[in-house]
Amino acid sequence: MVVASDRNLRASRPAQVANFFAGDPAARAGARLARADATGSGVADLVVASGGGAVAAYAGLAAGSDAPTPLFTREMAAGPLGVFVG
């Protein structure tokens, strides 16, 4: 997962904020993303669903952090198109 700053993207200056594996690094079924304030901190957190049925949530990035803190990972019953978040 490569995370870029929204502010920099809108200014046409992409800047990488983090680069990490979300979920199982061996999985190759794709991923679907959503962001929400899952912790009530006022900072957007990242929710990732794999095509294979895993759902993981990561706390919003702190300044100077390379990767977010995992909040949880769960295996879900996936349909033929995987798991969707949003």
Give a structural overview:
It is a single chain. The chain is mostly beta strands. The protein has one domain (24-86). Helix content is 6%, strand content 35%. The protein has 1 helix and 6 strands. The strands form 2 sheets. A 4-stranded antiparallel β-sheet has the order 3-4-5-6, with no helix packed on it. A hairpin with a 3-residue loop joins strand 4 and strand 5. The longest helix has 5 residues, at 6-10. It is globular. The two termini are 17 Å apart. The mean pLDDT is 74.
H/E topology pattern: EHEEEEE
Structural class: mainly beta
Mean pLDDT: 74
Biggest sheet architecture: 4 strands, antiparallel
Q: What is the helix content? A: under 10%
What is the count of helical runs? 1
Strand order within the widest sheet? Answer: 3-4-5-6
Query: Separation of termini?
Result: 17 Å
Q: In summary, what is this structure?
A:
It contains 1 helix and 6 strands. The protein is mostly beta strands and 86 residues long.
Kindly list the characteristics that best describe this protein.
about 90 residues; 4-stranded antiparallel sheet; 1 helix; globular
What's the helix and strand layout?
Blueprint: E1 2-4, H1 6-10, E2 16-19, E3 31-36, E4 45-50, E5 54-58, E6 70-75
